[in-house]
From TrEMBL:
GO terms for molecular function: NAD+ nucleosidase activity, cyclic ADP-ribose generating. It holds the Pfam family TIR. Residues 14-40 are annotated as: Disordered. This is ADP-ribosyl cyclase/cyclic ADP-ribose hydrolase. Residues 14-33 have a biased composition (Basic and acidic residues). GO terms for biological process: signal transduction.
Amino acid sequence: MGNCLSLFHARERADNAKHKTERSEAGRNKTESSEAGTSSRSQYQVFLNFKGDTREKFTDHLYYGLQGAGICVFRDEEGLDVGERINEALPIAINNSRIYIPIFSQNYATSSWCLCELAQIVENASLSNGHKEILPIFLDVEPDDVKLKNPLYRDAILNLEREKKLSTEQVDSWREALKKVDAIKGWEAKKYYG
């Protein structure tokens, strides 16, 4: 996580005065939590995209580390139950964030929620003319899992497609998003934690 924080500190120093003013103002309005729909901020610096099974360990540490460094982070606080719709705050937070951190874990691709967010993240980043970045973390998976070269993610997506009777277009957008993100150099946690 130290490398991640160093990167963010370097990016923060490079921001212009306008961004510093916005952060200062956001800090005055900061609520204790960045829960979906409860923050008064209209722009987040970082959006965390993750499966809930990573929340209590890795994702919480990353979230609080970034917040402690003064970085405005969006992390969805609520899980999605079957049949629920995506919280309206999520697309807004994705649209308004500058940096996206997808945290790829063993169970990530079992969540249509995570995959939908990722597809929107990839679309936003590609339309931003380089103003938005994706910084992937491969927590307990290999990049080849995310590339769909191994069965872990490939089979999980096939299962979602069958169980939820999803359109080919929807599922193809997830596959394309995974492949595009995997083309970005990310952090492989096993290289740092053994």
